Fold:
Amino acid sequence: MMKKRLMAMCLAVAMAAALAGCGGTTESSKEETKAAAEDTGAAVEEGEESGQEPVEIEVLSLTWGTNPEPGNFVEEKILEDINVKLTMTNFATGDDVKTSLNMRLTGNDAPDLFYATAEDIADYATKGYLLPLDDYMDKMPNVKAIQEKVGVIGQVDGVQYGAVKQPQIYQEGYWIRKDWLDAAGLPMPTTLEELISSVEQIMNSDPDGNGIDDTIGITGVKINAIMPILAAYGVSRPTDLIDQDGEVVSSLYDENYPDAIAYIKDLLDKGIIDKEIMALTSDLYKDKLAQGLPVVVYDSWTQFKKPELYAPIEENNPDAEWVRIFDLEGPGATTSGLYDPTSVGAIYCVPAQLEGDEEKLDAIWRLLDYVAADEGLRLVSYGLEGEHYTVEDGTIVATDRMATEADFTWVYQLLGRNEMEYLGVKFPYAKAEIESGVYDRTYIRLVNTLVEYPDWYQRVDAQRYMDEEVTKFMFGERPLEEYDAFLETLDSTYNYKEFVAGVNEYIQGTGVLDN
Amino acid sequence: MVNKTDKKLSLQKVRAHIPYYFMLLPGILYFMVYKFYPMYGAMIAFKDLNMLDGILKSPWADPWYKHFATFFKSPYCVELLTNTLEISLVKIVLGTFSAIVLALLVNECRNSWLKKVVQTVSFMPYFLSWVVIYGIAFAFFSEGSGIVNKLIEMLGGEAIPFFTSNSHFRYVLYGTHVWHGVGYSAVVYLASIVSIDTELYEAATVDGAGRFRRIWHITLPGIRSTIITLFIINIGNILNAGFDQIFVMYNEQVYSSADIIDTWVYRTGLVGMNYELGSAVGLFKSVLGFFLVYITNRLARKWGEQLW
Amino acid sequence: MVRSKHKITGERVLDWVIYLILFLLIIIFVVPLLYVLSASVTPYSELIRRGGFVIVPSELSFDAYKELFSTSLIGSAFKNTLFVTIAGTAINMVLSILFAYPLSKKSLPGVKFLTLMLVFTMMFNGGTIPTYFVVKDTGLLNSLWALIIPGAIAQYNVILLKNYFQSMPDELFEAATIDGAGAFRVLLSIAVPLAKPIIMTVMLLYMVGNWNVFYAGILYINSNELKPLQVVLREILMSSQNMLNNVDTHAPSLTMRMAAIVVTSVPIIMVYPFVQRYFIKGIMVGAVKG
Structure:
């Protein structure tokens, strides 16, 4: 009994002590950080004399659940080569990264280097959280070279705020069950009409022979499932902004848009497009795919070429042959789909609070430049030469150990990688497949990641309005005759035309569309 | 003579109170540090936050209601409010009713094996995250392949688009809400039921009261205090309609029946680090919630069941 | 005599109706849970072959569990969450009981005000930013204590305890006080033992709350070794959601995800049967007389 009383007293005292120790607001912690920065400045000079202590750099990253062991061979080699000790702080989803990062930026507690998307950068920069990189680009020649390739991405009002990853290649599109096409005696469709009639014919012929009418025509995750159909009409998803002959426009105003909607509505009514697409998550969609139900799906080449992803499909549908459909001709255009060449995986930024901390900043420039090219790039792409890969006749060849021991190195690819070479090394069996998707294909170009949003534009509500109303038109919940009324409301409530015009002017100014 | 005894008694009374204040001390300290002190953050709702200046030195928003206006000016504002209130109210009523019924059923059950199993089994869904529950619900209720819909089609009906239709989606929300929470909520009611004096039951049986009369006249009044207390607390939370559940399960097709204040704030606030908006809406919810709690508490006074 | 026989049969019928309803309820709860369990031991391809929903697998495979423990952070996450649950609940209970008991004494000066303040903090809070600062300034950042201290007292649970103490007959306490017992003595030897049902309930609620801690884990914890169970679980569940990164990531299979769910839920569910023992009727009988 006395013990409990004692414990209660102790807790009370502890609380009181904590309260006393709590100095107050950020003001005090800011002073601390500044003082610490000055201290390290002094330490640098000492360090240089006494033989260089490694500089500790914390990187905040989005790694989708992959958590490499601390002290692995990548981190060791980086420590060896450039004297930087890395600590990776990883999160599994973009939202989690944002939650933690926003809190730490606000609390003056930011990591030394962190992941951001092109859309976030504008906000962080205008609020003053980011360190401008223009003055330091000359210290990072490799990073500079990549930046020149990607142009204005990572810039806000002409100032460079982040180190941009090399762009990834286009991966997604429609895939069709070639074995079912063959069984029905049909050729690969080249026009939208051919595609739909083939799908219809196959659906009605009970292709899996189980006596149940369970075949799904076209499916995918949410609106992606119909992206190529929209593209065939020369239009895009409701909220997208596209490049049409050098001008940035919203395809909602295109004369083909109502026709595209009507066509899709027809397909939904007939059951050719899976009515449930909007409720599907990635997992639920994959279940349908593995069950061998759909004729056509919208997906990425990895689903069909990466062994661990394809295995469930293969086991249950050993005769299945999935082939990518490329150029599809439609009433509006002949394209392979919608694509944003400026969509980069990530941009790594430096917090403004590091200003003045020469030692850390130097280490960051070394790190970024190291992984951007040559030896460092190969380390984070493939692993250690001789152990995970060998160089034969100038080409890189993976050893058996790469797949098992070096499968996490991508987490350290802060500046991305040489995509085509990388994919060729890691997935040699899919090389032809990948290349045929990239070269000599036409796509409708999306410019969403280049958009800067003015304060007056009610972005979230406007996007909801567009998505929701177009969905209603497609599913027959709103009569198509009201399409013009929809556009009028869009403009009167959200000033959408003005918004698009402003974006057009801005993007034209950057010259990105000129290539 | 009387004065001296009075003084002595009141001094004793005061001395008697002191241990209680000691007991309260740790809790008071905790609330001061972690609950009251951070309340200065409510200012954020009225400022344009610039963390380099700190919360205190950030400039005031111009006009002061700027961030509140962001919410109220949204064309969806009314819909969000109605959805939130409707969904919340139904969940409170359904939730309370089902938890009480379950607690009563368990209590009246004479088979101890059945009792234990039901309690444990009904408690389990609480631990599943909504992502998992969505997957399970989809397996049962999906339009294309759901077990329930297959049954409906076998009986000659048409499949019901539970997840993509505004007229049906709320049933999924209510159903999964009850499935998820009833076991957990029933625990509190059970604890109350168990502490009712059994002599009351014995007396009633002797007087010839049957099952239902015993429940109506003894059990329910016996847990009346718990019911009312929990109800008051739930009413205070009425503007929180269940973000975690709805966020996982909704999609564009059911926005108009399922988009609530919190999901809207989440989408709008995440864009551009808009803490001010979150703070403003949070303040609005708190004020309204507290007001409702105050009124409900006054009503509860009539039955002597007030919170304070 | 006829009347009571009639009643007895009526009651028996009611008993069976109750049994039936409860039995149906068991099915409604168990079937989906069984699905999760069986999906964790059934290879994905068999799951798909049988239409995506399997209750009784034809073969059991514990590969997913092996994979889970060798490739993910679940091991360390378990230790973290165990610590938070045990130490945290202990702190929760001590602080909550100490706080709730005085509040149940209606004659204590200031009781009404304190209760109002309690309810006030339930409705109003300063938001994540100032709370983050307080957590930071009290030195809790990036430590497991950040998952315990900021949530040390749940007002809802205090109200439950307070109500229960209030419902206990005054004579009980008066008798003890007259015998010369101090407030602490009364609390520990009378109030607490007799309030077992609500105390066990509140303890259960706290344990569940501590076991499920998630948001605080994202906000206050950066190191992988300190991540609690729910954060790691969500990483495992969400990592299959992104199409573009399939090139690099190894998304865990559905089987492994189900195994993760089983592993994170089973331990805490096991606590419940122990708590049930305390839901004994008649605990109050004779308390006043005895």
User: Anything to note?
Assistant: Chain C has two domains: 2-61, 66-276. The first helix of chain C runs from residue 2 to 41. The domain at 66-276 of chain C is CATH 1.10.3720.10 (MetI-like fold).
